[in-house]
Amino acid sequence: MVKLIDVKPDALTSHSTWLIGLNDFLRYAVNSACLTLMCLAIFLATANESSAIEKLGKTQWQNEQRIPILGVTVKGDTEIGAIAYLVVAFAERTDSTGLAVLFPSASGRFSPMAETSIQQAIYRAARVAGLTTDAWSVMISVVDSDLTIHGSSLSAMVSLTVLALAKGHSILPNRVITGTIAPDGYIHVVGGIPLKLQAAQHAHYTRVLVPEEISITDGDWHTPFLMQVSPVSSLQQAYLGLTDFPLVP
User: Fold this and answer.
1) Quick check: helix, strand or coil at residue 163?
2) Which of 22, 143, 179, 191 is in Cβ range 3.0-4.6 Å of 211 for a Cys bridge?
3) d(Cα 225, Cα 155) in Å, to the nearest integer?
4) Model-level pTM?
5) Which DSSP string corresponds to 26-72?
6) pLDDT of 51-110, one tens digit each?
7) Which of 95, 102, 199, 112 is nearest to 149 (CA)?
């Protein structure tokens, strides 16, 4: 029996529910007047994957890190926080033909909108850091082959990891951020913070960075015991909080 786990755009779902989840997500997009944007995201993600494969060639990955991301899913009739793990690999090529981002299909999957949000966040983060992405190759894999990841709240964590790898740094253990990167380079609001904090606590993460702006849908929430929750608004604050290094020396 195929069971629908989640239809929310900020979710972790199993491959067995992907087709059903996509249908529900399409209905959500229509109701939200977002269908055109979603179709564009699918087109761009497909085109970008072909371009990335061509640019990557036989890339030798220079730096790699396994990172957590926080999300929300459904168990039974109840929403719960969830953690998934990604592997982010980075290399700097000798050519300057543009950013190449590859999402291997052999592992777990990202929705087209999730892929687009990650690529946008990498561009935005690099611009704030004063770096050019023209010679960057990036590969992002979902560790659990049964997961499909929707939404954009992972994009800050992924893009900041790419920056860290490009600068010879890494994300420190037991630290994670949930949020997006706005066009102006600031960390933008996301929902589900209380549930994500619970998931982080269960996985023994000691410091979680969250957007300074709080979603009105989250209501009041409390910091879990022995956890440091750090509200951040700028990319500089987020990078320092995750790596203990300044974004720009």
Assistant:
1) helix
2) 179
3) 27
4) 0.80
5) HHHHHHTT-HHHHHHHHHHHHHHHHHHHHHHTT----EEEEEEEEEE
6) 555 555 556 899 999 999 999 998 888 999 999 999 999 999 999 999 999 999 877 899
7) 112
